[in-house]
Amino acid sequence: MASSSPSSSDTNQDTNPINLRPTTYDTWCGVAHGCTKKLGLKISGFLQRNNSLDDKGRIVSSFKERHASKNLLVCENIEDSRFRHAETDFSNLFARDLLPAKNGEEFTMQFLLEVVDILLNYVRKTFDRSTKVLDFHHPHQLLEGIEGFNLELSDNPESLEQILVDCRDTLKYGVRTGHPRFFNQLSTGLDIIGLAGEWLTSTANTNMFTYEIAPVFVLMEQITLRKMREIIGWTEKDGDGIFSPGGAISNMYSIMAARYKYFPEVKTKGMAAAPRLVLFTSENSHYSIKKTGAALGFGSENVILVKSDERGKLIPADLEAKILEAKQKGYVPLYVNATAGTTVYGAFDPISEIADICEKYNLWLHVDAAWGGGLLMSRRHQHKLNGIERANSVTWNPHKMMGVLLQCSAILLREKGILQGCNQMCAGYLFQQDKQYDISYDTGDKAIQCGRHVDIFKFWLMWKAKGTVGFEAQINKCLELADYLYSKIYNRDGFEMVLKGEPEHTNVCFWYIPPSLRGMPNSEERQEKLHRVAPKIKALMMESGTTMVGYQPHGDKVNFFRMVISNPAATKSDIDFLVEEIERLGQEL
Amino acid sequence: MASSSPSSSDTNQDTNPINLRPTTYDTWCGVAHGCTKKLGLKISGFLQRNNSLDDKGRIVSSFKERHASKNLLVCENIEDSRFRHAETDFSNLFARDLLPAKNGEEFTMQFLLEVVDILLNYVRKTFDRSTKVLDFHHPHQLLEGIEGFNLELSDNPESLEQILVDCRDTLKYGVRTGHPRFFNQLSTGLDIIGLAGEWLTSTANTNMFTYEIAPVFVLMEQITLRKMREIIGWTEKDGDGIFSPGGAISNMYSIMAARYKYFPEVKTKGMAAAPRLVLFTSENSHYSIKKTGAALGFGSENVILVKSDERGKLIPADLEAKILEAKQKGYVPLYVNATAGTTVYGAFDPISEIADICEKYNLWLHVDAAWGGGLLMSRRHQHKLNGIERANSVTWNPHKMMGVLLQCSAILLREKGILQGCNQMCAGYLFQQDKQYDISYDTGDKAIQCGRHVDIFKFWLMWKAKGTVGFEAQINKCLELADYLYSKIYNRDGFEMVLKGEPEHTNVCFWYIPPSLRGMPNSEERQEKLHRVAPKIKALMMESGTTMVGYQPHGDKVNFFRMVISNPAATKSDIDFLVEEIERLGQEL
Predict the structure, then answer these.
(1) What class of enzyme is it (chains A, B) (predicted)?
(2) CA B93 – CA B162 distance, rounded (Å)
(3) In terms of CB atoms within 10 Å, which of A48, A521, B347, B566 comes out highest?
């Protein structure tokens, strides 16, 4: 333990390494596996490798004999032991030899340490710019089995050696989303504290539904949600919220909450009990509003798309016009979604003006800040979400701009009780009323899930480790990089910006114009050709594995690149690299 | 790498440990951090601990200097390096000193190795029966901060030393769901292969929506789902499915699929476009059918509860009567859920008879095998799900009976295309049609989520490591233990079974009758007293931390214990322990 106090013999030991001099293999192993904590020294054990199968068997047997007693591995007299990674032959070992198998402890520790070695190498290489972002293969190639990497499942077990190879191959043919040159999604990066948190979460392997089996995590969730509500600016003492499996589900919760608030009878009687309800969201908003509107029984046609301006921001006048139009048709406006950070343009809808309209017509205001919520952590950028404190609910995904590992999405509500009212079904076997503790901490009945993954711990741990100021610095840095990219390509030959003006978020959208198209007048032919440029560059990029950035058509605009920066590992040199790589790959198109 | 070949010098080294004898501190450090792979020896480095803050700072600085070049840590000439755990002072280190910080690699590796040490100790103790299952504290105690464990978040960062302490405390005050005496939920155990898989998943930190960023995981999901469909017995070449965040969401998918199959216009026009649709499920089924029925706009009243027999199995005659009754009222029956393994009793509904009725009335048949699906892996027990091959959809949670880490739940469909049709919204920025690979592998548009956590890898890896036969053995063992428990308490003084006959699943439901109630006639007073017994024993159990088992009232039955066994680490001795512990704690009530 880092905080344990050293014994006075530590310093003596400094100049007296004589105890570290075993003279035979066995003595050496004894030292290596013995408890040397008192000496302040940690020495890993080892076993010689051997190629011969017979010898392998012999070594494993001998290993088993020598380590049958767990005291050889674990120093029982101290609270937490330091485990020593010993060379182990896994070719004759199987899952059944691990815990809970009798004498399985040593093999379990060695197997997990071997896995950790693979993972640490992966982490190290992820941050190493000489490593590729990906080693691209087509689906049929991976399905056929590259270099013996067989994805098929079989009746019989594979050796642990093969399992370790499978782990290496899985990482080898995957995509390094934490690489400083991976710009493909809104969620990038590999935060080390978050990683530690997620490893711990997996090891704790519990479920969020009750305080009974997740006491610490349930409280961490409550405290973190409260902190997030404060940052949003809600002054109510008792708001609500829950972490959900992603922004789409968080948005789904917001619609369910709005419906329950205004038409609680829908819970029991169905949509038939309500008039024709309509929802409003901008044409630039995330597709999950429409998708969950369809799922919840509103129908996608009743999710009305409001026009956006040339920067992708919802136009309040059009919202009001569409509300009036709906009312005139006899429909009942229920809910408006304002987006803080649209997916493609990174646009922030004018929340205050939208809030005015929602107040005027008594509508639920939801702010989808899945992507832009992180900016609330920055004193420099939080003004872009002004008005969010007037929302009834907010979606905020720490797994995007805040760099939390996937996944971590919160739905936050200003009013307490709606989630519970909306979702509770009072399953007696899970939510007993006669427990010995305060059951108001059981969260399960306000979720639409039953079991719920622990998404909070990594986030809580990152917040502890960075502080609010750490998130702020990280977010400011990403936004500065976006400015840097914008300034770099704004007037650069061969680049054309999709939007006028500096970026508000880290989204920078642009076309690369290959030399062959540069002189061409803006005709349909040029547009068609330009439409094919980004996919071609992207394909070349993936095949060379050097970097990744997304592209898409949008509205009436042909395919363009959408650069987003959420990885604190990215630097100006990576931005330079991306620009030059696009030029290199697009030169001949 | 386990498969790398050793050099011939390895064996020579066996009897020649002379190179391991450094004579001064610095020389020793040199050996410890040098690249000794060639010698086949791994020795961890070390730093002396020191209590003085000044000295700490000095040591860290010196450590930084000596390790500025990453070559000291990492042997660059080999593909994968073995990392050496060195004693490191984390009290002056912060998250900002880790990668991507310049020279952050060494600290990153040492920090993660320290975390791994904490986790390995936790794993070891989880399987150690002398360790408590939990160290119970009330919410207010944890919120007040026990022994300095402060859950509140602050503006400023904490040192990595404090972060490590926070990790230890988080585990200390949690519940060991993998402990062989934790019987509290349907998901128990801590599978080592699954754990390795989940650590890797966290490290890969990607998202399931496209092949582009999760090529290997997307294919593993496809292959595993196909295998599961084969085991269900569907003969169609092209079924469908997806892993979802838990059984409740999987059940939600089944209802959405049924609705889309029969009333596709609801997607665009809402529930108003359909007649009054009704769903059927047994009174013993999981509450998520009702909950998601409410969420999707059917209304909980339109989820009609069918009677169960005394064992908790749906009564087909009552199903048919309720269908006819609904039709007579002008409602339109849409969907029947049959449960394979109910939550409390572990009952299997008679699927074949239910399938006959569904065929007769042209209804969608869903089988909720979240809990019982694992039995399909056992040739001895799979007959309990006979008829499942006639279902249109199946929920199957490998995180329950198969011991996969949380969470891992699959919704499987016999017919391909429904999920896609039901959920797709064609977001151009995510699901581009002009990619260079076969985009039919992109799964995002059939999900109700946008981002989707990688739940497949741990399961795939476990299947590889155990084979189908390994799962079979593990499941058979759990069912044998349930039989053992049943035989043990069936005629035991002070125990009364809730159900007649041997258990079908691992659920064993019973009352413990304290000596004070044993002679008492079955009066209302006795029932009231008995109702309070299980909660009291449970509270004492949690406070002593020795074991955990669930209880609940059910229908007209007062609180009883529901024992479930899904942890392959449990043995007969643990069952004996539980029974004796209940007797010990309940003796005086």
Answers:
(1) lyase
(2) 10
(3) B347
Which string of b and e fits B410-440 if b means at least 16 CB within 10 Å?
Answer: bbbbbeeebbeebbbbebebbbbebbebebe
For B122, the domain range is 9-176
Q: Give the distance, in angstroms, between the CA of residue A161 and the centroid of all CA atoms in the same chain.
A: 30
**Interchain pair B82, A83: CB under 8 A:** no
ipTM value: 0.89
Q: Which residue is listed with tokens 């509290």?
A: B184
- Measured over the CA atoms of residue A131, residue A579, residue B102 and residue B111, the dihedral's sign is negative
Instruction: Count how many domains chain B has.
Output: 3
| Residues B284 and B433 both lie in one domain | yes
Residue B380 · residue B473 · CB < 8 Å: no
Chain B nearest C-alpha distance from A233 (Å)? 16
Residues 472-531 of B with CB under 8 A from A: none
What's the whole-number mean pLDDT along residues A146-157? 96
Mean pLDDT of the A55-69 span? 39
A187 in any annotated domain: no
What pLDDT is stored for residue A79 in this prediction? 57
Residue A232 lies in a domain: yes
DSSP 8-state assignment for residue B7: P
Q: Based on the fold, state whether residues A282 and A392 are members of the same structural domain.
A: yes
Q: What is the C-alpha separation between A534 and A62, in angstroms, rounded?
A: 60
pLDDT at A19: 32
Residue A3: closest C-alpha in chain B: B161
Q: What is the CATH number of the domain that holds B442?
A: 3.40.640.10
Supply the CATH number for residue B514's domain: 3.90.1150.170
Whether B445 and B491 map to the same domain: the answer is no
Question: Does B356 contact chain A (CB < 8 Å)?
Answer: no
| pLDDT per residue as tens digits for the range B424-467 | 987 766 678 889 999 999 988 899 999 999 999 999 999 999 99
Radius of gyration for chain A, computed over Cα atoms and rounded to the nearest angstrom: 28
Q: Please indicate, yes or no, if residue B190 is contained in any of the structural domains.
A: no
Q: Are B294 and A177 inside 8 Å of each other by CB?
A: no
Q: State whether B385 and B532 are in the same domain.
A: no
User: Do B483 and B449 share a structural domain?
Assistant: no
Please indicate, yes or no, whether residues B41 and B161 belong to a single structural domain of this protein: yes
Cβ proximity of A422 and A395 under 8 Å: no
